[in-house]
Design a protein that fits this description.
Blueprint (H helix, E strand, L loop, with lengths): L2 E2 L11 E2 L1 H4 L4 E4 L10 H10 L1 E2 L8 E2 L3 E4 L5 H6 L5 H7 L13 H15 L7 E2 L1 H8 L6 H15 L4 E2 L1 H4 L3 H9 L10 H15 L4 H8 L3 H11 L3
Helix pairs in contact: 2-4, 5-7, 10-11, 11-12
């Protein structure tokens, strides 16, 4: 992050500027800042306080004027209370906080991001696209690995798809198994009917899409007319 001087360690054959030095006059984005080691945290705090830093192996203070943005999936307040993150650094970083919901709560972004990754990773001469069924498969998946998992799913699908259109089988995700696991309680021997299982799944999907019938029907792989019949049959509200 702060660079090093020639001879600072065995492989330091030349001097090298760090990220804070390179970003002078601009913005420095620190991803996964919650993983920052306790030994590096006071150095970052000092830099945030007065803009000064030292390269490893140097006795000279340097200055850099940057805007720092940090991102993390950890609760830094909890980490600070557990002494894994310095409270003074947390207070210094916590000027403006933006909370971004996980991907599973941003259905509108899933297909947009999937198409972006397709464009980014597909061969230039043979671009690929998602079939409607593949889009539906993505929309009902929970993405425990968030955006990175979506990127890996698309990259894998590009490799294994046999033509220019990506099908559900190319995605290698099992939404059916996820749905089954969600409704199955290993400590409960109660058996429910298929109708009840279907009702629960439709109700959950409707709720997820805020009762948008077009998106719900597409995610379930049925027509809007069929969805309306199911809503009427199960008296869903």
């Amino acid at each position: 992050m702060f660079g090093y001087e020639k001879g600072a360690f065995t492989d330091a054959k030349t001097s090298k500027p760090g990220l804070v030095e390179i970003a002078d006059g601009g913005t420095l984005f620190l991803d996964e800042i919650g993983e920052l080691s306790l030994s590096l945290q006071p150095k970052l705090l000092r830099f945030l306080e007065n803009g000064e830093f030292r390269r490893i192996g140097s006795v000279t203070n340097l200055n850099s004027n940057v805007r720092v943005i940090g991102a993390t999936n950890r609760n830094l307040v909890t980490e600070a209370n557990n002494r894994n993150f310095r409270k003074d650094l947390l207070f210094r970083l916590n000027v403006i906080t933006l909370t971004i919901p996980p991907l599973k709560e941003r259905d509108d972004d899933i297909i947009l991001l999937a198409n972006y990754f397709l464009q980014k990773k597909s061969p230039v001469r043979s671009p690929k696209k998602l079939s409607k069924d593949a889009q539906s498969e993505l929309l009902v998946y929970d993405f425990p690995g968030n955006v990175r998992e979506l990127e890996h799913i698309i990259e894998r699908a590009i490799i294994f798809s046999e033509n220019d259109v990506i099908l559900p089988k190319d995605l290698s995700i099992s939404t059916n198994q996820n749905a089954f696991n969600e409704y199955e309680n290993p400590e409960d021997d109660t058996i429910i009917t298929l109708d009840e299982l279907e009702r629960l799944h439709i109700q959950k999907t409707l709720k997820r899409f805020e009762w948008n019938r077009e998106n719900t029907a597409r995610a379930l792989g049925i027509s809007q007319k069929t969805l309306y019949s199911k809503i009427k049959k199960f008296k869903l509200r």
